[in-house]
Every structure is written in C-alpha cells, then in structure tokens.
Design goal:
single chain; 127 residues; alpha+beta; globular
Length: 127
C-alpha cells in the first residue's frame, strides 16, 4: 500500500482492497468501498502532488497491522474546496489495517489533523 500511495498507483491500491472494504477516520466511517477510497486518494494526490508517506513502525498481530508513519508534502492544488496554499507540511499519523483473504478489509486512521490544518494555514496557530 505504501508503494502504491507514494507511486500514485490507483489501480495497484484498488487491487489491495477487499470487496467488503470500509475506512474510518477518527472513528467515523468515511468510505464504504474501494472505488470511493481510491477517489479520495486521487483528490489527496491532486491537492499535494509531492506527498510522501514514510513508515516509522509496523506492528502485526494476527490479521491486524498497525502502521505509524510521517506524511509530508506541499499543498499545490485545491484542498477540499480551498485554493492551494503553497505551504509544506509534515505530520505523524497512525493507521490500523485489518486484512482478510490477503486484502485490506477495514482501516482505522488517526491523523494529526490540527497540525496539518495549522501548517497549511487553514487553522489559526495559538500562541
């Protein structure tokens, strides 16, 4: 998945997702199928064309994998309805993946959204 994400390989990413795929971000269901997940990724790649996921740690137990990683890049495209900021970012995130029949069936993402929004100038810095 990391290679597909960093390589902007939508077809490869799609092939890794189970037919019964579901994603949650901060506990809320955001996607219920592979096509919507890939569409979200393509919007993200368009908003931050140089985004790079760097793994920091993997932990596996049974059919569950936990990935700690940093995400860095530059907002050089429309970002969820907002014009590009041209700002760079680096955040540290955690994703938990459930694997079924060799494909990812469930994903739980926990992102430092406040740090991302602050670095992009969307959220005001406190201080």
């Amino acid at each position: 998945m990391i290679e597909c994400d960093n390589g902007r390989d939508a077809d490869g990413y799609r092939a890794l997702l189970h037919d019964d795929y579901e994603a949650r971000v901060h506990g809320q269901v955001t996607v219920r199928n592979a096509e919507d997940e890939v569409a979200n990724l393509e919007r993200w790649w368009a908003a931050c064309s140089d985004v790079h996921l760097e793994p920091e740690a993997f932990h596996a137990s049974g059919n569950v994998v936990t990935l700690l990683y940093s995400l860095s890049g530059t907002n050089d495209g429309e970002f969820y309805g907002r014009p590009k900021s041209g700002r760079s970012f680096e955040v540290h995130n955690c994703t938990v993946l459930e694997v079924m029949s060799g494909k990812v069936s469930r994903v739980w993402r926990y992102s430092d959204t406040l740090a991302l929004m602050t670095q992009l100038g969307i959220a005001a810095q406190q201080g």
